[in-house]
Specification:
By secondary structure, this protein is α+β, with helices and mostly antiparallel strands. It is built from four helices and six strands.
């Protein structure tokens, strides 16, 4: 009787260990990526809450972004490094780029890079700080950009 119980217990342990081994070997959940309406990119586990505070998901730009990687594998491996550099140069820098401020057209205030409202207000645009001052915008809380 003891041998029978030990055999059943050992069999159960083997079955359970193989079941746990299968669950550990499964790959992580696939991530999704999108482009927000203000030009910033998003990547995460799901589209829920994507681009919150950035005007929502830009569906046309996201579709275009998903089509670009499909075209890249067809290129020859020697040509891939040379085609990657121009693509990076054409894409606008995330957040408007160096020396750019986010101008809120409604409040006539501009926000510097790193500010919590930089690129997040609904009615705004990127421009240089000098251009913003020339057009009559004032710095947020009276603090000019560093």
């Amino acid at each position: 009787m003891k041998k029978l119980l030990l055999t059943v217990a050992a069999g159960t342990v083997l079955v359970m260990s193989s079941a746990f081994a299968k669950t550990e070997a499964t790959p992580a959940a696939a991530s999704v990526s999108a482009v927000c309406k203000d030009g910033t990119s998003y990547s995460g586990k799901s589209m829920r809450g994507a681009c919150h505070g950035h005007g929502g998901v830009d569906k046309a730009a996201t579709a275009k972004m998903k089509e670009e990687p499909k075209a890249a594998p067809s290129a020859a491996t020697g040509a891939a490094p040379s085609t990657a550099a121009p693509a990076a140069a054409k894409a606008p820098a995330m957040g408007g780029g160096a020396g750019q401020v986010w101008v809120n057209n409604t409040s006539k205030v501009y926000h510097c890079q790193g500010d919590r409202f930089y690129g997040k207000t609904k009615n705004g645009a990127y421009m240089s700080e000098a251009e913003a001052k020339a057009k009559g915008f004032r710095p947020d809380h009276g603090k000019a950009c560093k």
